[in-house]
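G.,

No rush on this.
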Amino acid sequence: MNKQEYKDVWIFAEQRDGKLTKVAAELVGKGRLIAQSLGATTVAVLLGKDVSGLAQELVAYGADEVLVAEHELLERYTTDAYAKVFCELARERKPEIVLVGASFLGRDFGPRVAARLVTGLTADCTGLEVDLESRNLMMTRPAFGGNLMATIECAEHRPQMATVRPGVFERPAKDESRKGRIEKVPVQLASKDLRIQIAKVVKTVKEAVDIGEAQFIVSGGRGVGNKENFVILHQLADALGGSVGSSRAAVDSGWTEKAQQVGQTGKTVRPQIYIACGISGAIQHLAGMQESDFIIAINKDEAAPIMKLADVAVVGDLFKVVPELTAQVLAAKAR
């Protein structure tokens, strides 16, 4: 393999129902910084049906080029269709780096693409840097249950691929004046290429609510006491129009789902407001929410680590504070 044939940083621009995901914008921003350090081009690859209107949005976030692949069979994500179209483009144009969001869709898509392109994939990354001498991407991810951070490189194969945890990189500000190249690429796709046909899409509450996309998160930890007590956190989250998260302790106790876990072994979030209820603030949890715009911590223990990180630390009984906060929010909305 001639590594010099490979160039540019590609971002899989994940969209759902015709809207870009937050992680797509985050990766365009990070991808642009990596591309600039390598003297390369930032290319967003957009797949779907009737999605060309999103191309200029990707340029505004920092993409130099957008490859738009539209087809009836790309309207809903299927592994076979998306992987086939993306891999054919990658074989033809040879990207040096490919970044994919570690969403539930990206976790399916990334490994399939890596296998077809016969390259490596570092999953669930929380850090990306470049060794300029070797042009190797240094991909950092949690290991051994989050107790260690491993940095991995794919020195012998190209493209270098990583799935990246949503929320670990800041979403860049839009620059509507940016200019970029938008290219519609031909798509060769037929029903026979798909081993699975989607008959119906049913969105459950769990699937519809992604804490990585939420602007307001109310999180509970061991101090909440039990699964039933989480109802007051749901009431506050509903009043705010947000989502409920949790610490690993709450997940391990069976009080919440894994999809709600915030932290090094859960999800990294960057909401406008993060309200931590009964969470002491282990370093693994702080790593997943410390970049929130505004943090409110409610805890009986004023010496808890999370109280030092919080913008507002409320020393008190969460079973009194949270319902009162909910009432205040509802009263403000009713005015």
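When you get to it, here's the other one too:
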Amino acid sequence: MVALVRGGRTLLRTAKGWFLEFRLIPVLLWSYTAVVLGTAIAVSDVGGFDTRWFVVALALGGLIQGWETHAINEIYDWRSGTDQVDGPRALSGGSRVRNFGLLDERGLWLIFAVSSVAIAALTAWVVVARAAWLAILILTGYALGIAYTVPPIATAYRPFAGEWLGGFPGVLLSGLGAYGIQAKSISLVAIVALSAHALVCMGMLMMHHYLDAPMDAAAVPPKRTTVVVVGFPNSKRYAGVMAATAALLYGILGVTTNPAFFLGFALTVPAVWIHLRTNPTNLESVTRNELRIIQLGIAAGLSTAVGLAPILWPMLPLAAFGYLAHLAVVSPPAELGRAWRRAPGRKKRSQKT
């Protein structure tokens, strides 16, 4: 917005780099939906809704995942070489800001620094105005974002660790933080529901790594993701089991707590079939099905949230707007053909980054 108002090609390219680095579509599935779902469960439990703290929770989730974690990931994945190969990938392979010359490493460190300062300021406010123990959730999520890619831990470079010591707790903490900032407590229902959503996100992460596998294996150091280590057939089964477990958790909550969770169950069950039928070596199959998994995951979490707390209904059209806005800015590879256009709604998108 600043770039459009002030003009200037360089500023516009930098603004586009910041936008792409945020990686809005993954953020919508992971932290955005987790925060909305956690907030909805809190509203259902305590009967009140504080808009201000909901916005703070959204900001913290977006800053930690969208800029802090993604900027660090971009820096180290570029250094290892896995993102430098501009192969037949659409949704994976980083944000492409380095490939397109929109940002350099210094620009990525600036994103990390600015987001870190903003996270620190918001955390201090939460500690003073809400509850000091919430800082544990926020700072743990922040640390997990760094440990995901930065050596010597680099959980993303180790099989299973990327999912269970990076992605899963990151999503869970984002949603629990949103619950806690509203209710000043944590509930078992929130833990189970957000675990279900985190499992959906982990299934998407597995699919996200399919087309990266050759580049990840050749990186220095090698990025030994679960997909690289266990192979495509086992990865598909692994992702399918995570989606099935997520559906089961939603179903259990629908029976034991609130029928709204059946919405999450109904929208997660198809993900099992999609995971199992995906061709991990085919660009069109992976891209189209990853978008479907993302769409179903967002719909499952947000529809359940609105069922629990109807006051949150505006988050549905806002998510749709953000999803389409990201697709409008990102340029698909030429090899993708009709798959890119059909997945989001059969409309041709020819914008060039």
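The chain has 15 helices and no strands. The chain has one domain: 21-342.

Enjoy the weekend,
O.
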